[in-house]
Write a structure and sequence with these properties.
The complex is a heterodimer of chains A (376) and B (513). Chain A is α+β, with helices and mostly antiparallel strands and 376 residues long. Chain A has helices at 21-27, 79-94, 110-119, 134-141, 177-185, 220-224, 287-291, 318-336, 351-364; strands at 5-8, 11-14, 51-54, 61-62, 72-75, 165-167, 191-194, 201-204, 230-232, 245-250, 259-265, 268-274, 306-309, 312-315, 341-344, 370-371. In chain A, the strands form six sheets. Chain A has a five-stranded mixed beta sheet, sandwiched between helices. Chain A has a three-stranded antiparallel beta sheet with strand order 10-11-12. Chain B has helices at 6-17, 47-60, 66-72, 76-83, 88-95, 99-111, 121-124, 129-142, 162-167, 184-193, 207-216, 229-232, 236-245, 302-312, 322-333, 419-422, 432-438; strands at 23-25, 38-40, 73-74, 117-119, 153-155, 174-175, 179-180, 221-225, 248-253, 265-268, 277-280, 285-289, 350-351, 376-377, 396-401, 427-430, 445-449, 454-461, 469-473, 486-489, 496-497, 501-507. The longest helix of chain B has 14 residues, at 47-60. At the A-B interface, strand 10, strand 11, helix 7, strand 13 and helix 8 of A face helix 1, helix 9, helix 11, strand 8 and strand 9 of B.
Chain lengths: 376, 513
């Protein structure tokens, strides 16, 4: 028998020194559900969803923060584990305003529930994360309907005073992923746990609005939020998750080259998230990469060629505009030589465009007067 | 770095949390300084003095990497001769960093391996920009930090595809793949590939020369693709005069902007996410860009527009998509990109050099201390001051850069919901000491003027900038720093000295407040 062997659901697997049960399991594609676990952050074991049963251990242990040890015998879906997860989910559903169908189905009066949900904290809408919520997914998976415990009223009003992020504390399950994303991943150190006990709240600075805090609106917290507590204002209610398709692309701003998922509905980008595990950014984005996509839909876009005539621009067709450019360059070059024309390419546009422009200047106009802003 | 390359900065901050040492050399005490073991607030434009001072200590105290210097480099004696004149005391007189701190930095740098140097335009946007870069390379070679992972000289490119535009030969001296236009063999190769003859054999003009020759009349036809030169170039008044003089100006862009006002023809282009293609990032990683939305109106991909013009000159270019241009032309004609094709970069991109389709790409250059040119060449450089330094009339130094919430001239970010709310106008950042001396209060409108022009802008009083400095960006037309900046250029690269010019600040009226 090998030294570093662990049994998961009766099957032996090797583990590397220091690996957690969760890491060994996910390497083997054994699904242990998680909620508070955030990749690249120190596991906290706070939410108790990932608990597993270890033979000989008195209590269930969180898989995310328990190291694998020699000959450990782990059950990931034993009756005891499932019972514990169901209870945890019941408590989470009762911990705030989780007004999706799951959170209400056992209440006798749907209307009363809805009215309650809406009256509470000025909530007029259903949860913006409906269909894209880790808590809802888990409740569905373990068939937890909610209503077993009295719902806790949230004392903290929703924060709407910044232009990009909605912070709805009534939907927050205090998993701490946003705090880890802010402090351990992006290291912006803007948010933390504040207050105590039932009053606990994720606060920015000494409980200020994000706009008045150290927040730089990278939105890493939104990407990390597993429920509907943190939502991009631009994307809120814009599309159901299954109506969008994800297109991988590269950010159009600085030279880091972050990889983005464009969430596209009907040929329109409704949301941007980072490509987890993708090089070079490993899912991280900044404010421009995450929220700076909608300029392409501006009404001010140039939509047709324009030709200056008597000091004003008039619309023209492609043929007319291209003929004019081509003929004028021909006339200039015929009269003054090839070096009487010059071009500046674009460091924002794709490689293929710059290649094509230098080819035009060199092969067609016969000049090397081609440059771009690398030097400026 | 936290403002201009925020995501790259997160990895630096992660490293600090994991125990790495961080030295920040910057006149400003910006956010990254909070994470630094040492902050070196050197005077603007004194980088070479500081670097030479550090190298002086490394050599004098015998802390440099003998093995690397002896086996992988040439020119050490010349370097030694130059930096020996920069004792920390003398370096301090120029850069303002005290001699003991210079010694401490040198000892710290020599105590660990590898050391990574990252820099941005604070190094290159000086009249001595090229020498600044050389000086950093000298330091890293002296420390033996070249050719190793997590070491090296790492310029963070400011724009998404400035690396790619260079790689593609949008430069006056090279074809794509850095093949010199003065090389007859290279010309012959491209003549064959492009089915043409008589490719020009002399280096062309650089942007500042093009602009100046608009006025002399040597350049008559000017084609600007996706650049808002009227706001981004130093000395807006001069630039606008040059653009106005152009006999025939073509602008190809996605929005009307300050530059298109001077155009004779404006061609509407498809934007990011409206066509397929590739960007190449600071790590030389070629990444895919994909289509999500249709272009508005009749706007067309830029490559298509260039192809149509070529056709009108009787050139039939076979490639009919960005993918065909890359796979059939760019990678075929650029040896360092030969192994990169669209199929291979469907997910993560590949870093060039990538010479063959089974090559995994190259994460860092000069591996095993083998430089492209053979041995690493030390290029000793002397410090030179900025072209314009503060004096009695213009007692402050103006330095410029980018802020987090906007990008360049805001043609894009200015049209994104929310970003304008987070930063809605330009400010002139000044120190508390200067504000107090001038009796300027925070957010008060002030006048900042240089020998080129003047702007009215709100003062932002901050601990970030040292006394004697004004710091501004160029995101907004109103209060744009480029009304003030100095069109003085590095003699080799013709990069403008955006980071240093002399300005005066004035209250707008004695009672304003």
């Amino acid at each position: 028998m090998s030294e570093n062997q662990i049994f998961i659901n009766g099957n032996p697997f090797f583990f590397k020194e220091g690996q957690t049960i969760l890491e060994v399991a996910s390497e083997q594609r054994i699904d242990i559900p998680t909620l508070c676990f955030l990749k690249d952050a120190i596991p906290t074991g706070a939410c108790r969803i990932c608990v597993v049963e270890v033979k000989g251990a008195r209590n269930l242990v969180p898989a995310c923060s328990t190291p694998a040890t020699r000959n450990m015998d782990v059950s990931t879906e034993s009756p005891r584990v499932i019972e514990s997860r169901r209870l945890t989910l019941e408590l989470l559903l009762a911990s705030g305003n989780h007004n999706c169908a799951i959170g209400s189905s056992d209440e006798k009066d749907w209307t009363a529930f809805q009215l309650g949900a809406q009256a509470h904290d000025d909530h007029e809408q259903l949860c913006p994360a409906w269909g894209d919520c880790r808590l809802q997914d888990l409740a569905y998976r373990y068939q937890v309907k909610g209503g077993q415990f009295d719902r806790v009223e949230c004392k903290h009003p929703t924060e709407t005073v910044n232009p990009l992020i909605m912070r709805d504390f009534s939907r927050c399950i205090l998993c701490g992923r946003c705090v880890q994303a802010c402090n351990e991943i992006q290291v912006n150190q803007a948010i933390s746990f504040g207050y105590r006990g039932v009053d606990t709240k994720i606060v920015a600075g000494g409980d200020r609005a994000l706009v008045n805090s150290a927040c730089v609106f990278c939105g890493e917290c939104v990407q990390a939020c597993p429920v509907g507590a943190l939502v991009e204002k631009k994307s809120r209610f814009a599309a159901r998750p299954w109506e969008t398709r994800k297109i991988r692309t590269t950010c159009p701003y600085c030279g880091v080259g972050c990889q983005l998922w464009l969430h596209v509905k009907d040929e329109k980008i409704v949301k941007v998230t980072g490509v987890e595990n993708g090089a070079p950014n490993q899912g991280r984005l900044c404010v421009k990469g995450r929220f700076g996509f909608d300029f392409i839909y501006s009404e001010e876009r140039l939509k047709t060629p324009l030709i200056r005539e008597n000091g004003r621009f008039r619309e023209a067709g492609w043929d007319e505009a291209l003929d004019l450019v081509s003929d004028t360059f021909k006339a200039i070059i015929a009269k003054h030589g090839s070096d009487a024309v010059a071009g500046v390419s674009c460091a924002r546009s794709i490689n293929e465009d710059s290649y094509q422009m230098q080819k035009l200047f060199r092969a067609v106009f016969k000049t090397n007067n081609i440059d771009h802003c690398a030097r400026t | 770095m936290t403002e201009a390359h925020p995501v790259a900065a997160t990895f630096v901050k992660n490293a600090v949390r994991n125990g790495a040492k961080l030295i920040v050399a910057d006149p400003r005490k910006h956010r990254l300084v909070d994470f630094a073991d040492l902050h070196l607030p050197l005077y603007v434009g004194s980088d070479i003095a500081l670097l030479n001072g550090i190298m002086h200590v490394l050599i004098k105290e015998d802390l440099y990497d003998h093995q690397f210097v002896e086996s992988c480099t040439v020119g050490f004696e010349a370097l030694k001769e130059t930096v020996m004149a920069y004792a920390p005391e003398r370096a301090c007189e120029i850069c303002g960093i005290c001699p003991d701190a210079i010694r401490e930095v040198a000892r710290l740098l020599a105590s660990v391996k590898p050391v990574m140097v990252c820099y941005t335009l604070g190094i290159t946007e000086h009249t001595c920009g090229k020498n600044n870069v050389m000086s950093i390379a000298n330091l890293q070679m002296l420390l033996g930090n070249m050719g190793v992972e997590y070491g090296g000289v790492n310029p963070l490119r400011g724009q998404n595809n400035v690396q790619g535009a260079c790689d593609m030969g949008a430069l006056p001296n090279v074809f794509n793949g850095y093949q010199a236009v003065t090389d007859a063999d290279a010309r012959q190769k491209f003549e064959r590939a492009w089915n043409t003859t008589a490719l020009p054999d002399k280096n062309g003009l650089m942007i500042p020369q093009m602009m100046e020759h608009l006025v002399t009349g040597k350049v008559k036809g000017f084609y600007i693709f996706g650049e808002n030169l009227a706001n981004t170039e130093p000395d807006i008044k001069k630039v606008e005069h040059e653009l106005k003089t152009a006999e025939f100006l073509v602008c190809q862009d996605i929005f009307p902007n300050e530059t298109t006002r001077f155009a004779h023809v404006i061609l509407p282009a498809a934007a990011w996410s409206e066509n397929d293609g590739t960007f190449t990032n600071s790590e030389r990683r070629v990444n895919r860009v994909r289509t999500a939305s249709p272009a508005p109106g009749v706007a067309k991909p830029n490559w298509w527009i260039f192809k149509q013009i070529a056709e009108r000159w009787g050139h039939d270019w076979p490639s009919n998509s960005a993918r065909e241009i890359w796979d059939n032309e760019i990678s075929v004609l650029s040896p360092s990109l030969a192994g990169i094709n669209y199929d291979r970069i469907a997910d993560d991109g590949l870093q060039w050099p990538c010479p063959t389709t089974d090559h995994p790409g190259t994460c860092f250059l000069h591996q095993n201390g083998e430089f492209t040119c053979g041995l690493g060449q030390f290029n000793p450089v002397e410090w030179t001051p900025p072209a314009e330094v503060p004096d009695k009339d213009y007692p402050y130094v103006l330095s410029t850069g980018r802020r987090l919430y906007h990008y360049h001239t805001r043609t894009q970010t200015g049209r994104c919901e929310g970003l304008n709310d987070l930063l809605s106008e330009e400010t002139a950042d000044i120190s508390m000491a200067d504000a107090e001396a001038m009796q300027i209060s925070d957010q008060e409108m002030i006048t900042v003027k240089s020998r080129r022009g003047s702007v009215q802008v709100r003062a932002r009083i901050t601990e970030e900038v040292p006394s004697g400095m004004v710091w501004m960006a160029f995101h907004f037309r109103e209060g744009n720093a480029n009304w003030l900046t100095h069109p003085a250029f590095d003699p080799d690269t013709l990069t403008a000295e955006y980071k240093a010019c002399a300005v005066a600040i004035e209250k707008m009226s004695p009672n304003a407040g």
